[in-house]
Amino acid sequence: MALSISAAVLLGIIVFVLLKGGHVRFGSMLACSLFGFTLATTGLAPAINTGIASIAGVLSSL
Q1: How confident is the model at residue 54 (pLDDT cuts 50, 70, 90)?
Q2: Domain residue extents for the chain
Q3: Minimal CA–CA distance to 50: which of 7, 5, 18, 13?
Q4: Closest CA to 36 of 8, 1, 56, 4
């Protein structure tokens, strides 16, 4: 059985666990999230998406 999960959902779960565990404070989480949204609007976004897609391809082939 293959399990497919969105990268956004997976990262959201990781952030939630880190926030609840006390490893990341709310202000830090908010700053990193806003940085991610800002980075997504730059010209670097296609390269980041390509890199994430290639990492996902490697992981799915394992």
Answers
A1: very high
A2: 10-35
A3: 7
A4: 8
